[in-house]
């Protein structure tokens, strides 16, 4: 009897969630204010990280820009300051827990307790599995995924204490499907996606209602991560080109400000990815991938 009641309650909740999702499609949540909030952005020296830093600062947030590249990192902070914003450039190796602790301590002393974390730092060697060095594999996993443990563990206690915070995970559509030449990258982004989901589940278990999570899954973005590969790698996409950092950044900011849990860019990619895995037989996936003609391909050597 208890099982029957539990099933009825479950169905009732699922129906509610469906209607809630439909309602939010029609009437999006209002945007929250980040004025005065402290934001940490890893990989803030360029690309999406720099763009996000400028956007948050433009809304009145205080931004700590973390990156291993001291010169470009300081340039981001100076650009924010020149526009009247407040920023602190901090050199940080996100793969090193002690470096993260040092950067966190400096952030707190300069800007205050952290309200929003944007785990954005990432690399993408883009090589065949057997051509990747051991060091490249370890570095990709450590930067793209393991570093999220160190940043979240550093700032989550304060978020729990104040029952407020936001964790942004810049994953990738490579966290939804395996892609040739990106074995290490896909593994790291699958890991980052899974980490974000597990943290979100823990927050639900612990009970705080105001610690939000946004996971970002863009297709390829026109940043140095992609453009640095053009000498040896071709990028193809039958249904579109490489997205600009600005348009992806705008989509991320809108989702964070509205506390949306997921960002897919282009937006249709999320549904397309899920449907292709659910509708088509498993052994058809390589054929579907070939039809999409999307991804990285080695340039043919001239004879």
TrEMBL record:
A Pfam family: adh_short
Record flagged with keyword Protein biosynthesis: no
Keyword Membrane set for record: yes
Topology in membrane: Multi-pass membrane protein
UniProt xrefs under InterPro entries: KR_dom (IPR057326), NAD(P)-bd_dom_sf (IPR036291), SDR_fam (IPR002347)
Places the protein is found: Membrane
Entry keywords, A to Z: Lipid metabolism, Membrane, NADP, Oxidoreductase, Transmembrane, Transmembrane helix
GO CC terms in record: lipid droplet; membrane
Taxonomic superkingdom: Eukaryota
Gene3D superfamilies associated with the record: NAD(P)-binding Rossmann-like Domain (3.40.50.720)
An MF annotation (GO) of this entry: all-trans-retinol dehydrogenase (NADP+) activity
Ranges of residues in domain Ketoreductase: 37-204
Assigned protein family: Belongs to the short-chain dehydrogenases/reductases (SDR) family.
Annotated function: Catalyzes the reduction of all-trans-retinal to all-trans-retinol in the presence of NADPH.
Protein name: Short-chain dehydrogenase/reductase 3
Organism, as annotated: Capitella teleta
Taxon lineage: Eukaryota, Metazoa, Spiralia, Lophotrochozoa, Annelida
């Amino acid at each position: 009897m208890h099982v029957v009641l539990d099933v009825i309650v479950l169905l009732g909740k699922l129906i509610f969630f469906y209607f809630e999702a439909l309602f939010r499609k029609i009437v999006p949540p209002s945007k929250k204010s980040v004025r005065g909030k402290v934001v940490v952005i890893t990989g803030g020296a360029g690309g999406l990280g720099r763009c996000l830093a400028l956007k948050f600062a433009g809304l009145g947030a205080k931004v700590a820009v973390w990156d291993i590249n001291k010169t470009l990192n300081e340039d981001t902070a100076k650009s924010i300051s020149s526009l009247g914003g407040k920023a602190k450039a901090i050199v940080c190796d996100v793969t090193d827990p002690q470096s993260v602790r040092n950067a966190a301590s400096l952030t707190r002393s300069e800007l205050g307790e952290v309200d929003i974390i944007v785990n954005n730092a990432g690399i993408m060697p883009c090589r065949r599995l057997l051509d990747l060095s051991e060091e490249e594999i370890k570095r990709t996993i450590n930067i793209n995924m393991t570093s999220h443990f160190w940043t979240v563990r550093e700032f989550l206690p304060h978020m729990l204490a104040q029952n407020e915070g936001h964790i942004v995970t810049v994953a990738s559509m490579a966290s939804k499907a395996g892609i040739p030449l990106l074995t290490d990258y896909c593994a790291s982004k699958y890991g980052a996606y899974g980490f974000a989901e597990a943290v979100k589940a823990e927050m639900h278990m612990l009970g705080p209602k105001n610690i939000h999570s946004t996971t970002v899954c863009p297709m390829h973005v026109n940043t140095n991560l992609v453009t640095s590969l053009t000498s040896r790698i071709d990028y193809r996409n039958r249904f579109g080109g490489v997205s600009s950092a600005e348009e992806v950044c705008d989509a991320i900011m809108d989702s964070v400000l509205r506390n949306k849990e997921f960002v897919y860019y282009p937006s249709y990619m999320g549904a397309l990815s899920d449907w292709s895995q659910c509708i088509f037989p498993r052994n058809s996936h390589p054929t579907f991938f070939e039809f999409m003609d999307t991804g990285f391909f080695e340039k043919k050597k001239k004879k």
